[in-house]
Description:
There is one protein chain. The chain has helices at residues 48-56, 78-81, 98-108, 113-126, 142-154, 172-189, 200-206, 224-229, 234-239, and strands at residues 10-19, 22-32, 37-41, 63-68, 71-72, 84-87, 160-164, 192-197, 209-214, 217-222, 244-247, 249-254, 257-262, 265-269, 279-282, 288-290, 298-309, 313-320, 325-331, 344-349, 354-356. By secondary structure, it is of the alpha+beta class. Helix 3 packs across helix 4 and helix 3 (98-108) packs parallel to helix 5. The protein starts with 9 loop residues before the first strand and ends with a strand. It binds adenosine-5'-triphosphate (ATP).
Amino acid sequence: MLARSKAAEIGATGIGKDFGGFVALADVTLTVGRGEFLTLLGPSGSGKTTFLMILSGFEAPTTGRLTLDGRDMTRTPAEERAFGMVFQSYALFPHMTVEENIAFPLKVQKRSAAEVKRRVAEIVEMVGLGGHGHKRPSGLSGGQQQRVALARALVYEPPVLLLDEPFSALDKNLRGQMQEEMRRLHRETGTTFVFVTHDQSEALALSTRIAIFEKGRLQQLAAPREVYERPANRFVAEFLGEINILPLTGASSDAGGGGGVFEGQALRAASAGHPGATNLAVRPEYMRLHMTRPETGNAVAARLDHLTYLGAETRLGLRTQGGTELTLLLPTAELPAGLEPGMSVWAGWPETRGFLL
Ligand code: ATP
């Protein structure tokens, strides 16, 4: 069993990176907890890889400070940090077998032959490569090659494992399978994982917390449910999935919640919103369709514009009297019979499901 005690905590304070006048990162401050699975999520060019490279030591920050278990590591070279790394391109040695690839970091560290043998055997089983140890990378599938890369990064029990879009070259099914493997490996090794992706559902499924980047700035750092259900701003809300945004007049909020008026209808949210927020935001799956005005909760009158059958779910496009488009995502099994575009309907939702944005 790989030791659990080696996981490290990383601190980043005011990290900035300029590339010849171009600001790739600005003032990023965060802590990666010991044994955490932290995902860096953001659109292309938002600075995720740059931040990961700064954590690894392969890039130096222009400003700011890094710590490892509280000790300054801002200028510690990459080889002394000795973090495990896995990239999209597996970067395996083609002339070595699976076992030789995995043994490589242990040999560099001059571990005894007996230890190398024992650890390689252990990790080969752990990543599900039993029986493939004597093959060369060219004889393996993409998923198997990525398992070799993971094994090689984990075999010497690094305090931190850095992963940059490791599954983006894999097809969807294999990707799902590898995500499950990652969760298991994280649990079993207890190592601190920092994972880069631009795939929202991958981030939500895997992470203990998600750091959301836009244009080099950290927008929010919180647990998956919190970033999805209580996004810090409109960018985060929209980046994580579809969201209905209802502009309010006379919006106000206090500790007991908030609300305002939308097309003559008073709407409320149970939680206090951001100061100065002027919209009520609701995810499509939390809105329900009603043929008459529901007696409780928030409700908005609209016309059914279109329906898209998606199998287990059906997506409904509604348009309010004032022209605001709403999306509802409903279990197909709950749809009323005889729904037709053009019908007058109501979209309703409980006060606990909306928030001011
Ligand atoms: P992707 O998902 O596309 O990999 P990312 O969020 O990882 O994007 P980065 O690779 O960190 O983004 O890049 C952030 C910005 O910094 C981009 O605009 C990129 O062009 C720029 N950048 C990165 N490395 C360099 C470099 N060596 N020289 C100049 N600009 C760079």
